[in-house]
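Reviewer 2 asked us to include a model.

Predict the structure of this chain.
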Amino acid sequence: MAAVLALVLLAGVGVFAAGRASIPEQQVIVRYAERLQAGAPVGFPGTPRGGGDAAAAFTQVLAVAGMRPAASQQAVTDLIVAEGAASAVEPLVGPAAGGEAISQTVVVRVWAPDADLDAVVPEDRQVSVRMLVCTLSGSVTNNIPDPNTGLAGGWYVQSVAVRWSQGRWWLVTAERPVPVPPPDQRGARRDGGPRDMQPLVDVLSARSWAPGTV
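Predicted model (structure tokens):
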């Protein structure tokens, strides 16, 4: 099961990596995973870039929240969601999954439109963040994907807002994810109509980055 998920996700990520190969970019991995509270990364800097990294990490944490016990799920929500905003970020919360189902969400790229990525964000100021997300889900039998149903999923742009308050980032809102054409397809839908290619233009721009890199 893990091997199947890894191969599918790596294949998609590789397409975007190849598309950005001509853009010189020095990246240093930021190990947010080493700073955890209630299973959620913390310590993101108070810049739009830090807000984007926080949004990506929080999105992946909430995607598996449905599989946690109720008390653990609530602890995670309290840590990363602004007070009173739980219903506003509901699109990010993954469904409960038992032993007969699998679900995986990976944030591949992040960008903050019209923001100075390294500027200091004032207290209680919100930042709009967009993310390219790959999701997979399906049924399993004996830890093997069901051959009759396979794996379902696709590529999406997820828009969220995060707020810098009390020295840390909080999720405030999340829109419904918007499907985008897979990176290896031309700009047409199956019915022959045009696709909106702007999300992929944003993804391939020099203003987007892989979560956890600076």
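Residues 111 and 208 are 4 Å apart (CA to CA). The chain is about 25% helix and 25% strand. We have added this to the supplementary material.
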